[in-house]
Specification:
Length: 268
Amino acid sequence: MPPIPRCAAFFIFRRMYQMKLKTIFFDVGDVLFNEDRLRFRILQSLVKALQAQGQEWTLSKLIRVRERRARYNDESFFHYDFAQELLGEEAFHAWFTGERYILTHKERYIHEILMPGMKELLERLHCRYKLGIIANQPVETEDALEYYGILKYFDPQLIGISDKVGLAKPEVTFFEWGLKNAGCKPDEAAMIGDRLEADIAPANRVGMTSIWFIPEVADKGWVAQDAEEEQYLQVISHLPNWRRTPIRQMEHPDVVVKSSHEISDYLA
């Protein structure tokens, strides 16, 4: 019997995985929704708060600082401790619980963008798998899912929003919660996420299939409307919001995909 061609072997291997998988969990930020515009609005809001104190900050200057700091930081640039450093503790608390809170909770669906092809992907997958969410997000996230017409694709028992269920990534207990509610074994579930330390590593630790979703900035659906938005997009295109290099064994994903179409190719 002749050997099986490598391309054919790949499809056989993929089909074996598909036959085992019963439940697919999604992260929300930068997986279901592109949050780049939301982070940009937060930076705009921070600049206004700094200017209200009489500080000479512009959005362009803050973006340049973001670029400079990101070059020497393995994690994300926008740590709120940096905003606290600039504003001072009292003003930071007022901003964080005021304007920033409105943006990230009450108005988040206005600033988020549904990932291109994601609704069509969910429509295809929910006919074949149970779909769930494991995400560090506020309770208002469900309103955004409903607003964009995708809440209906997820099993209500598997919508794991951290502020709602009282669990948070990267704790493996959050992933174990998902497996328990889905009634499936770890090798019967997959996690689709964009962050190595928060999604891929804990999924690997519990034995789930880990799918790392890292689309190019230009393919995430946000088109710049002015020079400042264009500047921000250019910076995050070569200095991403999250670390892109695994530094621990558990951070190596089983699968890497760059679009909803590639997810479909693997799972559908």
